[in-house]
């Protein structure tokens, strides 16, 4: 793939880069994207009907089982070439922030260091009532495991629809978006706020916006460079074009 020389020039001179990733970056690791995550038994539910406090209140076992199924899927996969290209980009860039909406932990697994997990991490589990984190829980097929401190139901430490994002992470992400010279939006449909607003915040502050996505998105008309294809193929080539 030939990249526009202007893009390479912007990238090699940038000292502050921010990257926002979504489910598409993990697609080549074998994980389904968020809006594509329903197969088999789960096909009868919309993700929004499983990832909300209301859904958990209505049917905690259904929600727990959906996350247990996804947690198992995550355990069996490895980062792909796109994740590793971002590790290399971080090592060459003085100020680099990787903001992710993914809960799979694959960026850290690959070796990325300055990672902001806006939507939590599926491997962490906490009490829905008192918030105590736990790493061990019994899994019987009848009921949702409970907290050893207060007896409340356990839930994944992820952000559900209608819940607030972790404040520190969101503030750092906004700061990175507002102060970067280049902002990448990679493998995200850009449909979910407030993450989707980060690209606009970067643009309003004069940052060059680069999109890497398998398909055009609502953000595409607003970006400076749209690179269409798989992130696991485009990102390694881009890093090679920049730093050899
Ligand atoms: P989506 O499933 O909405 O979008 C995935 C995007 O990845 C789409 O735009 C695809 O075109 C693109 N894509 C697929 N495969 C790709 C590949 N190999 N390389 C590059 N792009 C590829 O996932 P997100 O945008 O991450 O939040 O969804 C955002 C949030 O919506 C999720 O974090 C989740 C959900 O609501 C919460 O649960 C709070």
Describe the structure concisely.
The chain is α/β, with parallel strands linked by helices and 244 residues long. 35% of the residues lie in helices and 18% in strands. The protein has 9 helices and 9 strands.
At the first level of CATH, what is the class of the largest domain?
A: Alpha Beta
The secondary-structure class comes to alpha/beta
The overall average pLDDT, rounded, is: 93
Question: How many distinct folded domains?
Answer: 2
Major sheet characteristics: 6 strands, parallel
CATH topology of the largest domain: Rossmann fold
- The N- and C-terminal alpha carbons lie at a distance of 14 Å
The share of residues in extended strands comes to: 15-25%
3D shape: elongated
CATH-level-2 architecture of the largest domain: 3-Layer(aba) Sandwich
């Amino acid at each position: 793939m030939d990249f526009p020389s202007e893009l390479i020039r912007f990238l090699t001179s940038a000292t502050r880069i921010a990257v926002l990733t979504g489910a598409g970056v993990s697609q080549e690791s074998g994980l389904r994207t968020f809006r594509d995550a329903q197969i088999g038994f789960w096909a009868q539910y919309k993700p929004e009907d499983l990832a909300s406090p209301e859904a958990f209140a209505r049917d905690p076992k259904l929600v727990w089982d959906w996350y247990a199924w996804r947690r198992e899927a995550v355990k069996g996969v490895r980062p792909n070439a796109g994740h590793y290209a971002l590790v290399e980009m971080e090592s060459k860039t003085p100020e680099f922030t990787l903001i992710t909406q993914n809960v799979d932990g694959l960026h850290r697994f690959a070796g990325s260091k300055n990672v902001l997990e806006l939507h939590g991490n599926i491997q962490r589990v906490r009490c829905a009532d008192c918030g105590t984190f736990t790493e061990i829980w019994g899994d019987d097929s009848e009921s949702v495991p409970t907290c050893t401190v207060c007896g409340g139901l356990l839930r994944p430490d992820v952000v559900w629809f209608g819940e607030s994002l972790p404040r520190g992470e969101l503030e750092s992400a906004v700061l990175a978006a507002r102060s970067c010279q280049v902002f990448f939006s990679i493998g995200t449909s850009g449909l979910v706020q407030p993450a989707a607003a980060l690209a606009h915040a970067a643009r309003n502050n004069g940052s060059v916006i680069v999109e890497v996505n398998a398909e055009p998105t609502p953000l595409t008309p607003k970006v400076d460079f749209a690179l269409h294809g798989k992130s696991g193929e485009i990102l390694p080539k881009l890093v090679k074009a920049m730093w050899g």
